[in-house]
Amino acid sequence: MERMGLGPSHLLQSNPRLIYARLTGYGQSGPLAYKAGHDINYLSIAGVLSMLGQKDQNPLPPVNLLADFGGGGLLCVVGILIALLERAKTGQGQIIDSSMVL
After folding, report:
1. How far apart are CA 62 and CA 69, in angstroms?
2. Which pairs count as long-range contacts for 81-84, CB under 8 Å and 24+ apart, including other chains?
3. Cβ atoms of residues 82 and 74 within 8 Å
4. What is the pLDDT of residues 36-90, one digit of tens each?
5. Residue 63: exposure state from Cβ atoms within 10 A (0-12, 13-18, ≥19)
6. pTM, full prediction
7. Which stretch of DSSP H or E encloses residue 21?
8. 11-42 in b/e burial notation, b at 16+ Cβ within 10 A?
9. Which residues are catalytic?
10. Alpha-carbon separation of residue 9 from 29, 42, 58, 64 (angstroms)
């Protein structure tokens, strides 16, 4: 977004009450920052995939998007809700930077 002039520093200048949330697979920096990510990747990297399925069998992928909904998406929503509370008190927007896997 920054390359298109739509990063938080640009937009918050125009609207200081803005709540800017971004959700990435592996964060803004680090060795996986620019890699594509998918739910099954997040589950396996976090060690959750090994806990799904029957004992002594290969893991079974979940039928829904477990990591997307229950992991990063939920944490991003919590960050947005907290930012809304803070904005109501101070009038200032926030930047929420969340990732699926830390």
Report:
1. 12
2. 83/19, 83/21, 84/19
3. no
4. 888 888 888 888 888 888 888 888 888 777 777 777 888 899 999 999 999 999 9
5. exposed
6. 0.79
7. strand 19-24
8. bbeeeeebbbeebbbbeeeeebeeeebebebb
9. 38, 68
10. 18, 29, 46, 35
